[in-house]
Design a protein that fits this description.
Shape of chain A: elongated
Radius of gyration of chain A: 17 Å
Strand content of chain A: under 5%
Strand content of chain B: under 5%
Number of domains of chain A: 1
Structural class of chain A: mainly alpha
Number of strands of chain A: 0
Order of helices and strands of chain B: HHHHHHHHEEHHHHHHHH
Helix content of chain A: over 70%
Oligomer: heterodimer
CATH class of chain A: Mainly Alpha
Distance between the termini of chain A: 54 Å
Largest sheet of chain B: 2 strands, antiparallel
Shape of chain B: elongated
Largest sheet of chain A: none
Strand order of the largest sheet of chain B: 1-2
Radius of gyration of chain B: 38 Å
Helix content of chain B: 55-70%
Number of strands of chain B: 2
Number of helices of chain A: 3
CATH topology of chain A: Helix Hairpins
CATH architecture of chain A: Orthogonal Bundle
Number of helices of chain B: 16
Order of helices and strands of chain A: HHH
Structural class of chain B: mainly alpha
């Protein structure tokens, strides 16, 4: 097996995540699909790190993880706040900037 | 380990890739396609664990552990917490609000997939060098990453720390809610309930009384026994037992102490005392109630009888054959004679 297959797998996961972002309407599930895309990108970084034989790719993946953790905290707080004001977590309901 | 150096991997890693890769793709599809958000979250957690195994297989040992700890341990659990907060049972509505949106989305995803895959296929990806030497330079994967993180990437590391602090403060600010109105106390709630006419039902038999048998009346809040709480059949047959006078006395004493503590010669205490006096008057009238009015002995075997079957000392005592009664069950014999006298 050629290790390039890891890249193909990451591309497939990324595509599935993008598809989920497009078709789902529950804000939390959309958010989970974004996480899936970030994970696919991380897999690519780790595979490239192995390909080039240095650790910079792993450092990048580490920073992606940290930023994703911060993003999840703020994003979920926004979803909870939206749910409190609209009593729904559907992205269709949040069509206006005002409440 | 030599597999990490070559352009082809060992057979074991190939087997692992095809097996776990299939599961990872299935988990990703489950995340996207399952209707319930909780199922989606669990599928995504499975995919993330498999990705952690892939990181380990690629020589990124630190990232593999961090993936499990941060993603499946913290992030996915945070997702589940928010799902429980927002409502677990809400399934996604499958009705399309935009016409043909799903097909367009599938088309776009297909296009993106073809684009990315073709990009990878076109790229001149030479043989894999492997991270073995890079790991070995500083004596392992974790020391190597630490060396890079705290020298070359130290500014980015510091900025990440600021970012995490800002994220924590921001999340606290967003979800914090100031309480504007005063919280209603329990007493205010009870008064509002009484005023609105939704008075709670009568206490069940035995509530606040010394025993929990069905033939013991429950006590009203002012301490007087409520005959309505006992089954009408038992009331008709006169098989209702009195609540122990000791219990009423101790309740009245407690009420009195509470009133003294609050500095008010309370109405409830007076009512309870009245109830106790009326009960004593009744007991003086029907002096033939031996089992219940004897304070110590009657109560001791009373509890033993009450807890197994409900009206055990009244009902079954009557059904028993006369020979059994004479065999020495003193308490039930007394009770039965008391019942007969009461009738």
């Amino acid at each position: 097996m050629n290790p390039v297959n890891y890249l193909y797998l990451a591309a497939l996961l990324f595509t599935i995540g993008a598809f989920g972002v497009l078709i789902r309407r529950n804000a939390i599930v959309v958010f989970m699909c974004v996480e899936l895309m970030l994970n696919a990108a991380n897999l690519t970084l780790v595979a490239f790190s192995r390909m080039h034989g240095n650790l910079d790719g792993q450092i990048m993946a580490f920073f992606v993880m940290v930023v994703a953790a911060a993003e999840v905290v703020v994003g979920l707080a926004i979803i909870v706040m939206l749910y409190r004001s609209r009593h729904s977590a559907s992205v269709d309901d949040a069509s206006l900037m005002k409440l | 380990m030599s597999g990490l150096l070559a352009s082809t991997t060992s057979g074991a890693e190939a087997f692992q890739f095809w097996l776990l890769g299939g599961i990872a793709v299935a988990g990703a599809l489950g995340t996207v396609l399952l209707r319930r958000a909780v199922h989606s979250a669990l599928c995504l957690a499975g995919t993330m664990i498999i990705l952690a195994i892939f990181y380990l297989a690629n020589g990124a040992y630190f990232l593999g552990v961090v993936q499990i700890v941060v993603y499946t341990g913290a992030v996915m659990m945070l997702f589940l917490f928010v799902l429980m907060l927002v409502g677990v049972s809400t399934a996604d509505n499958l009705k399309e609000t935009l016409r043909g949106q799903r097909w367009m989305a599938a088309l776009c995803a297909l296009g993106l997939g073809i684009l990315v895959t073709a990009g990878i296929g076109q790229a001149a990806l030479g043989s894999f060098t492997g991270v073995e030497e890079a790991n070995a330079v500083h004596g392992g994967n974790v020391p190597g990453i630490a060396e890079k993180l705290f020298t070359e990437y130290v500014v980015a590391f510091e900025v990440t720390g600021v970012l995490l602090t800002v994220a924590a403060v921001g999340a606290t600010l967003l979800t914090h809610r100031e309480r504007i109105e005063k919280a209603t106390s329990q007493r205010e709630q009870a008064e509002a309930r009484t005023r609105s006419g939704h008075v709670p039902p009568l206490p069940a038999p035995g509530v606040y009384a010394l025993h929990n048998a069905v033939d013991r009346p429950g006590l009203l809040p002012d301490g007087s026994p409520s005959e309505l709480t006992v089954n009408p059949t038992l009331r008709e047959r006169g098989q209702m037992r009195e609540v122990s006078a000791d219990k009423l006395a101790s309740l009245a004493a407690l009420e009195q102490r509470t009133a003294e503590y609050h500095g008010t010669a309370g109405g409830p205490a007076n009512r309870r005392a009245e109830a106790r006096r009326s009960l004593e008057k009744r007991e003086a009238g029907e002096a033939a109630e031996p089992a219940d009015t004897t304070p110590a002995g009657g109560d001791a075997d009373g509890t033993a009888e009450d807890t197994d079957t409900g009206p055990s000392d009244a009902g079954p005592a009557d059904k028993r054959p006369p020979g059994d009664r004479t065999s020495g069950d003193q308490a039930s014999g007394d009770q039965a004679s008391g019942e007969e006298e009461a009738k």
